[in-house]
Amino acid sequence: MTNRVGLIGWPVTHSISPAMHNAAFQALGMDWHYDVMAIPPDIVTHGIREPMRHGYIGVNVTIPHKEAVMRIVTPDDVARAVGAVNTVDFRKLTGTNTDVDGFMGDLSAHQINVSGQTVIVLGAGGAARAAVYGLWRAGADVIVVNRTLERANKMLADLTVSAGVRERARVLTLDEAAEHAPTLIVNATPVGMWPNADDSPWIAGVPFPRGVTVYDMIYRPQQTRLMTQAEDNGGRAIGGVGMLVRQGALSFQAWTEREAPLETMMAAALIELAANS
Ligand SMILES: NC(=O)c1ccc[n+]([C@@H]2O[C@H](COP(=O)([O-])OP(=O)(O)OC[C@H]3O[C@@H](n4cnc5c(N)ncnc54)[C@H](OP(=O)(O)O)[C@@H]3O)[C@@H](O)[C@H]2O)c1
Q1: What's the predicted TM-score (pTM) here?
Q2: Of all protein residues, whose CA lies closest to atom 3 belonging to ligand 1?
Q3: Which of 4, 15, 24, 191 is most buried, with most CB under 10 Å away?
Q4: What local confidence, expressed as pLDDT, does residue 17 receive?
């Protein structure tokens, strides 16, 4: 019988995950299948049990269910620290968050060491939480900049309670942050995402730091305006497709207990992105 896994969210259109996972299963000759389930937010408790009832091994969880799922499964240390689950294993009724290691793994793959470095994280949503926690755990000095100040303060307060993030993490305005000589800027906002590819989360009028590396979690388009700004100022730019593939690969490994074929998953993700851009 086919082993089933999938994605729950609302909405879940344009997900790259089915292409990525199904290519991996095919490449390894595994009788597994990944599909997508749209579950409205008002029935998440019931909705997440449906795939379990139907014998699914596990699911990825995306917006807006990542926090609600924490009440249904037992989160591991990483999910508890971040406050969100993106990968559920129904066999153990456990949940983890592979965004943290997907992001940090992609930084490592690009030879970026953040220990002792000043890193600006733009945003205070779910992706920013994963980034701040991962960067802080790796020894970075993290500065959070967010449109809504209270949300950034709440994020750091939550991470302080859940993971002890206190020293080496603070909230500043963008112009204050720019003066702290960051070596890495992480965009964890959707600003610049297709179809608004001319937008940048770097506010006009604030000088762009020279020689800085930008990691933009956006993967559609693969070259964002923020990335171009970094390159125009003598810096380096990395887009979010590597994080996307690595977080998926970690889910794959959690469910199948097999090493994920990263290159196959990357190729499938790039084909899917090219087809839908
Ligand atoms: N590469 C990957 O694998 C990966 C994984 C996860 C997420 N992502 C990407 O990361 C981005 C954020 O995802 P998320 O799940 O964290 O979203 P989210 O929870 O909705 O948070 C969005 C954040 O962006 C800020 N923001 C939204 N619109 C803005 C605007 N017009 N100007 C300034 N700030 C704005 C929000 O600020 P306020 O607090 O002021 O509303 C909030 O802090 C998305 O583009 C997503 O695709 C990529």
Answers
A1: 0.97
A2: 244
A3: 24
A4: 97
